[in-house]
């Protein structure tokens, strides 16, 4: 009942529109989209995310080193 009322009353519409505008201005065109240290990442897998995070904190991972050899 609460959900239906808030949906009908469009209580969250301004926030959703603001979030949509912010995402568009940052180049977000799909979800999930990841940013690391203010840089949009172009990832193909969770392993890619892990590699980027490890590079950012300066800690090599086994997946980072195995990806470099493949």
In DSSP terms (H or I, runs of 4 or more residues), the helix count works out at 4
Binned strand content: 5-15%
Rg value? 18 Å
Helix share, percent: 55-70%
The gross shape turns out to be elongated
The helix/strand order is HHEEHH
Low-confidence stretches: none
| Largest β-sheet summary | 2 strands, antiparallel
Find the count of extended strands (DSSP E, 2+ residues): 2
In short:
The chain has about 70 residues and is mainly α. Helix content is about 60%, strand content about 5%.
Report on this structure.
The chain is mainly alpha-helical. It has helices at 2-9, 13-25, 46-57, 62-69; strands at 35-36, 39-40. It contains four helices and two strands. The model has no long low-confidence stretch (mean pLDDT 88). The relative contact order is 0.08. The chain has a two-stranded antiparallel sheet.
Structure keywords:
elongated; mainly alpha; 70 residues; 4 helices; 59% helix; two-stranded antiparallel ribbon
Q: What layout of secondary structure does this protein have?
A:
Layout: H1 2-9, H2 13-25, E1 35-36, E2 39-40, H3 46-57, H4 62-69
Antiparallel strand pairs: 1-2
């Amino acid at each position: 009942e609460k959900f239906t009322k808030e949906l009908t009353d469009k209580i969250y519409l301004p926030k959703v529109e603001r979030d949509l505008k912010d995402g568009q201005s940052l180049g977000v065109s799909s979800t999930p989209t990841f940013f690391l240290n203010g840089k949009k990442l172009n990832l193909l897998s969770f392993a890619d995310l892990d590699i980027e995070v490890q590079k950012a904190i300066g800690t090599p991972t086994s997946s980072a080193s195995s990806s470099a050899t493949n």
